[in-house]
Write a structure and sequence with these properties.
Elements (H helix, E strand, L loop, with lengths): L1 H58 L10 H67 L1 H22 L6 H66 L20 H10 L1 H29 L1
Helix pairs in contact: 1-2, 1-4, 1-6, 2-4, 2-6, 3-4
Length: 292
């Protein structure tokens, strides 16, 4: 009884340790997911800001504080970039929600796995104890010892050609039956534990497989999310934007005069408005489709 209590205390300690480990893993997984979102969005926003700066410089390198309508253009850029970042965050949150569900599922599976592993240790100890009980059962061994003594007496009489004692023969046969019955019962207990061990092992394998599949799915969604964030609101080959694509109708001479006499209008028409249109198109089409 004392030994069994020690085993359960050890198993309880193992469970508590594993439970803490599971919680830590879940926090790490969530933090990793958030990091992917944050870093990718930051990369996109910075690239788009740089693209706007490059575009403005190409239109008019001298457009800066003190220039006409500079403050108004800056406010428009801040508003547009705010919408740009919000759209990316909304896209990220859709995928993060799916990942959150998978992380919760993984935590549940890992908790079940800990329980199954503890059960495995318990069943193994139980089987070993029952095997020892089968081999060292006092009643069974006492009967076997008595049977052996009777058998020796019967053998001796047979060797001496003396008539066999019917009473001893009956005792011998009855003893064998009782010994076999005890053996069968003890063997049955051992076999039941072995079956329970086998079933529990199948449960462990199933849970471990589900955990692997869940981890793979989390990884896939993280990769898919990152790619969708990188592709969002890009044009052409969908490479991360580093320059503003301007209409080709602007030739050098046209851009030269336009940039000096109406820079803010050119910036609005060739940089800010096209970006606003891309943001709205993304919300109405890609983002709506993804969210269903």
């Amino acid at each position: 009884m004392e030994k069994e209590q020690e085993i359960w205390l050890a198993l309880k300690k193992l469970y508590e340790s594993a439970e803490n480990s599971i919680k830590t893993d879940a926090i790490v997984s969530r933090a990793y997911t958030d990091k992917i979102s944050t870093e990718t969005i930051r990369q996109k926003v910075e690239a788009q800001k740089n693209a706007i700066i490059i575009g403005i410089h190409e239109i008019n390198p001298k457009f800066q504080e003190g220039s006409k309508n500079y403050t108004a253009i800056q406010n428009c850029i801040v508003e547009t970039m705010g919408n740009y970042e919000k759209s990316l965050i909304e896209l990220s949150q859709f995928y993060d929600g799916k990942i959150e569900q998978l992380i919760i599922r993984k935590v549940e599976l890992e908790a079940n796995l800990v329980g199954a592993l503890i059960n495995e240790a318990y069943l193994k100890d139980k089987r070993v104890k029952r095997e020892k009980q089968k081999d060292n059962d006092k009643v069974k061994n006492k009967i076997k010892h008595s049977i052996k003594m009777v058998f020796d007496k019967l053998s001796k009489k047979k060797n001496e050609n003396k008539p066999l004692d019917v009473r001893l023969m009956n005792y011998f046969n009855s003893g064998k039956d009782v010994a076999n019955e005890i053996e069968e019962k003890l063997e049955c207990k051992v076999n039941k534990t072995k079956v329970a061990e086998k079933d529990n092992l199948a449960v462990i394998e199933k849970i471990e497989k589900e955990i692997r599949l869940t981890e793979e799915e989390i990884k896939k969604i993280n990769e898919r999310k990152k790619q969708f964030l990188l592709d969002a609101m890009e044009i052409g080959d969908k490479s991360l934007v580093t320059t503003i694509r301007k209409p080709r109708v602007f030739k050098k001479i046209t851009r030269f005069f336009a940039s000096r006499f109406n820079t803010s209008k050119v910036i609005m028409n060739t940089i800010i408005e096209p970006l606003n249109q891309r943001i709205e198109a993304f919300k109405m089409n890609e983002l709506a489709d993804i969210k269903g």
